[in-house]
Fold this protein.
Amino acid sequence: MTPADEILDIVDENDEVVGQAPRGEATARGLRHRCVFIEARDAGGRLFVHRRTATKLLFPSHYDMFVGGVVGAGESYDEAALREAGEELGVPDLPRPEPLFTFLYTSAEHSWWSYVYQVRCELPVDPQVEEVAWHTFLTDAELEQRFGDWIWVPDGLETYRRLQEFRARGTGATA
């Protein structure tokens, strides 16, 4: 099965399941579904940053500061977060990611309910080669210096902005 064939729950504006569709169809038709975004930091507080592979269905070869992806049909956000983080980071016995908040991401082409998590991971990481073309760990200052130089996934930028606001309000753990 290819990623485009993966079955997703299609959800409404209240994150209630209203149907199912293959991922490729959901993407092509702009059907709202569910995604997880996991902020992965090492013991020193540096953030895992990577460039997506050129074969990704959405935003190929773009940079991202989150690991994560779509939530499969019938899968919980928490299950998807642990699965996606474990797959993409390639860290055995990864702790369960800590849920932080949800928001509805919308753009002209896409819409998905997004659940944001954080996790600490032990080094070394061994990222999944189908997902990650290049990776490093950066401080927040180093990351922000690259915002104007690298092409970033738009949903990751929006998630990072919302995470910074969430933390500034004092409602979440800091790195």
In short: Residues 72 and 108 are 23 Å apart (CA to CA). The mean pLDDT is 93.
